[in-house]
Amino acid sequence: MRKTTILFLWLWATLLLFSACSHKSGKRPSVRAVYYWATQFDIDSAKRNFLTRHDISRMYVRYFDVVADRSGQPMPNATLRFLTLPPNDVEIVPTVFVMPECLRGDNRLLAQRIVARVKQMNATNDVEGVKEMQIDCDWTASTRHAYNLFMAEMLRLCHSHNMRLSSTIRLHQLSQAPPPADRGVLMMYNTGDVANPDCHKPILNMRDAAPYLSRLNDYKLPLSTAYPVFAWRVLFRGRQFVGILHSDDDYPQLPTDSVCLRQPTMDDIREAVRAVEKRRSDANDEIIVFDLSNNNLKRFNTNNYEEIYHRGRSAGRSSNR
């Protein structure tokens, strides 16, 4: 009996040691996730195949934007329409984009309206089992205090409804104290100036991102990381930035205008994933692709996506699932 007890304790201690080493090395399997950033929610066969092939278990879905009207009052804009039901085997995280100028008013009331609207959209569209909400806002040092007040109320309301709250974290925000939230998502993109015709990699250039990552390991908030697979078609008139073309008729075009394609390469993304892995491997415990659209699914192949989800390493045989 004594030998059995000693053997059991030895096995238990070995298991604990192995678990601790695995946690420290950052080699745990990643949670695989995607953003869905559109005005219509439509999971067609191509998207469904992607979710299944790559074992996607979480989807961050943009529900609506909050913008200021002419009087400066916050109002919802570009609300998502559900054309298909959300997959029942994928966790949905409702995500709301908030313009910084909307933080100037009553932040408590703004938070209450956002939570109420998200819950109403969940009920209307049969989105069940929501465990988390996310706020996306490009706040700066001048709006940080207002954002923190707003997020403190959001955190209180989410917890009262048994939900977590997450916040997107842009690279420049790493130099600021974290906002009130249960966790954050590091947005590893939009590193350059899209309006500059000489900036050929405004979405992702690791030379621009590297200085911000020096602060990553000391950032006092649990993090996941989102990596870009999207492209921009940028319209220039001479050397003057006109806008980003989402469709050909977004802006009137002159014969002398030029449309430049800006997109990250697989080498860019691979370098970004490895840079985060080196600085803070736990931030890659959940890897999120931005974003799930049919155009983006054609931009890279299955092996490329598997490599992203394998923390920038070759996926081997599993890439052919």
| Oligomer type | single chain
Bulk shape: globular
In total, the number of strands is: 14
Query: Any idea what the CATH superfamily of the largest domain is called?
Result: Glycosidases
Organism: Hallella faecis
Protein name: Lipoprotein
Mind explaining what this structure looks like?
It comes from Hallella faecis. This is Lipoprotein. By secondary structure, the protein is α/β, with parallel strands linked by helices. The chain folds into 2 domains: 25-229 and 264-320, Glycosidases (TIM Barrel, Alpha-Beta Barrel), CATH 3.20.20; 232-262, no CATH class. Helices cover 32% and strands 24% of the residues. The protein has an 8-stranded parallel barrel with strand order 1-3-6-7-8-9-10-14. The chain has a 3-stranded antiparallel sheet with strand order 12-11-13, with no helix packed on it. Strands 2-5 form a two-stranded parallel sheet. Strand 7, helix 4 (144-160) and strand 8 form a beta-alpha-beta unit. The relative contact order is 0.12. Residues 4-26 and 317-321 have low confidence and may be disordered.
Could you write a compact summary of the structure shown?
The protein contains eight helices and 14 strands. The chain is an alpha/beta fold and 321 residues long. Strand 3 (58-68) and strand 4 (74-77) form a beta hairpin.
